Amino acid sequence: MTSAYTPAPEDGGEGAAFGPTPSQTVGPFYGYALPFEGGGDIAPAGHPDTLTLHGYVYDGAGHPVPDAIVETWQPAPDGSRAGRPGSLRRDPVTGRVIGRNGVDFTGFGRVPTDADGHWSVRTLPPGGVPYISVAVFARGLLHHLYTRAYLADTGDALLSSLDGGRRATLIAVPEPGGPRAYRFDIRLQGEGETVFLEFR
Prior knowledge:
The chain is mainly beta. It contains three helices and eleven strands, in the order αββββββββααβββ. It has helices at 30-33, 157-160, 164-168; strands at 51-58, 69-73, 89-90, 97-99, 108-112, 118-123, 131-137, 145-150, 173-174, 181-183, 186-187. The two termini are 37 Å apart.
């Protein structure tokens, strides 16, 4: 159906100059729709090489962010990046998300932070790269933020380009006495702000 009304340029019609649509802050609605059951259980159940990557999300004042979402992506231990479908399986009758099948490694995780700002994923060591890619969604952000959690301080080009203090914000710290556990805190701004990456 075509409208007979043609707006004048000053009303946004033909000849009007339009700018980009402005961004809006993320959430807090996403916390009800994006998390899914088993979102942090990336490693197949009972896999002997499972490691835990966890930490806290902090705001600029150093307070925990209790309603953020953390996503992780990574290649499989053999370096393959295709992954397998299965993270967002749905019940064929109700259409409700029922989570992972517990067998296939998809390389993708999504978890909310808890009331203390803590998040955690169980995954496998990434193949071919020394890091796990991380994205953060949180209230007040116009765009989600991208970073990396390095499981080792390597000669990677990105790490090598940073001074010691900034470099340390990208390195997950092995937990003492923990079986293959690494802590990676994310500071959204302020002192000790995590290095975030820009993709174009």
